[in-house]
Write a structure and sequence with these properties.
Length: 295
């Protein structure tokens, strides 16, 4: 069953009602999962929602294009919005027991920011100013602020994020720990097209040539992975050489970070690391990442 609400009071009331109904039906402590999204849902989002239905009886999917995480030069106006299609997509998701209550929380901007914006901002700190944060000033403060609001509104037992946005998942996880927020985070693997391109709401902006060229991002990560036992410089060089073969792809950054800190790894780093890439393909900015094991 899928129900859509657009107010904070409405979603709180709906969750309370669903919890009470589950308790009455014999579920002692119904769990709530939250999947924050900006809509324009694709199979990457669906993977998060499907996983959420395995973890909780009540799944809240928020759909909110959050203005405070876009900066002036970015694509807030251009960001795709189609609530009706999103609700159809979500209605087709069935949990393992087919009895999950799916709540779609789709507030308007003035429901989330009644005074136009918020004076109180959660700072993502230093790791919020690197990589995506360096290219998009203030982006992660906007993300953490709206995620805090959503966590306070929904009070989920678990919140799910995609590995596709690895830095975002890291910063949200750290915020939950740092601010003692009573929830836990699960990070879901990236869903890809057959040729390796990570699914993204922005892929629809690629024309045919750009779409073909965009395979380079995942190919860079594969090249990095193949070089993982030959040292960090070789890893970077291997990925860069793939990008050089595709003039339509302009790399913004290519980095290898320690998953525990999101700082660039030292030359002597061994074990798990994350390779991240951001690139412009035509006018569309894409990101991707892969975990590798440095030998
Ligand atoms: P967005 O609507 O782009 O803000 O994404 C909402 C959530 O879906 C975030 O946690 C993303 O990391 C996740 N997500 C986006 N694309 C993918 C993908 N291809 N695979 C897995 N998760 C994804």
């Amino acid at each position: 069953m899928t129900e859509t609400v657009d107010s904070i009071a409405g979603v709180r009331a709906l969750i309370a009602r669903e919890k009470a109904a589950l308790v009455a039906a014999g579920v002692a402590s119904p769990r709530v999962a939250l999947v924050p999204t900006m809509g324009a849902l694709h199979n990457g989002h669906v993977a998060l929602v499907e996983r959420a239905t395995e973890l909780a009886e009540i799944v809240v999917v928020s759909i909110f294009v959050n203005p405070t995480q876009f900066n002036a030069a970015e694509d807030l106006q251009r960001y795709p919005r189609d609530l009706e299609a999103d609700v159809v997509t979500l209605s087709a998701v069935s949990g393992p027991s087919h009895s999950t209550s799916l709540v779609v929380f789709a507030p308007a901007v003035d429901a989330m920011y009644p005074s136009g914006t918020t004076q109180t901002i959660v700072s993502a700190g230093r790791a919020g100013n690197t990589l995506e944060g360096r290219s998009r000033a203030g982006h992660f403060d906007g993300v953490l602020t709206v995620v805090s609001k959503l966590l306070n509104i929904v009070r989920p037992d678990i919140v799910l994020f995609g590995q596709k946005d690895a830095q975002q998942a890291f910063l949200v996880g750290r915020m939950i720990t740092d601010l003692d927020i009573a929830t836990s985070i699960e990070v879901v693997p990236t869903v890809r097209e057959d040729d390796g391109l990570a699914l993204s709401s922005r892929n629809r902006f690629l024309d045919e040539r750009e779409r073909r060229a965009s395979r380079v991002l995942s190919q860079m990560l594969e090249a990095a992975e193949s070089a993982a036992d030959r040292g960090i410089d070789t890893v970077i060089a291997a990925a860069q050489s793939v990008a050089m073969g595709e003039p339509l792809v302009q790399v913004d950054y290519l980095a290898v970070v320690d998953p525990a800190t999101f700082s660039p790894v030292d030359d002597d780093h061994r074990g798990r690391a994350i390779v991240l890439v951001a690139a412009k393909v035509g006018s569309t900015r894409l990101i991707d990442n892969e975990t590798i094991y440095l030998g």
